[in-house]
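User: My collaborator sent over this chain with a note saying "see what the structure looks like." That's all I know about it. Can you take a look?
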Amino acid sequence: MKTIGRKIYYDKLTGNVLVDTGERAGFVRETTQEEDFQTYAALAERIPETVGCLQLEYGQDSDKFAKYLYRVDPNTQTIIWDLTEPTASLEQVKAAKIDFLNTECTKAIYAGFTSASTGHFFNFDEEAQANFNQQSTLLLLKPDIAEVQWKTEDAGIITLTREQFINVVFEAGQHKQQQINKYWDLKARVQAATTKEEVDAINW
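Assistant: Without extra context I'll predict from the sequence alone. Here is the result:
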């Protein structure tokens, strides 16, 4: 799975945050600072020498970003969290929480699943999903394929009959849909919340 942590661009004098790119996963590409200055209006109007940038790891402090406001200490180049009652609007808090839940959903999907029919644990990151789709297509195109060699996380490469592999594919789909359903449910609860406290109480 390709993951990219958030980049935080801030005013070197005040520490005020100009742009938070957020974190991304999947079919993503790391952008250069030059590209970011062309993409984000808040950066395009600035002199590059007056802007600092923090590059975070994927998932770093994701729980805090979903709950608190922050700025950057220009001297130490570290994040200063405002742990007091958030002054962000309810809609801003909701948007941050939904972004957090979306990231957690992706992590849960990519984490993999245990097949009830085989008892083995299968990886299900971006590459694994593409491999499952490719092999499923081959089975449709070639009905004479009787066995499939497949890598598991607990027992290495194993041999699956055609029927066993099809069952694993269905289980993989169920695993993914379960996480997506959970995300939809939590997202709906966030959208229906009427206070920041209700939003804060919703977690993955």
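A starting point for your reply to your collaborator: The mean pLDDT is 92.
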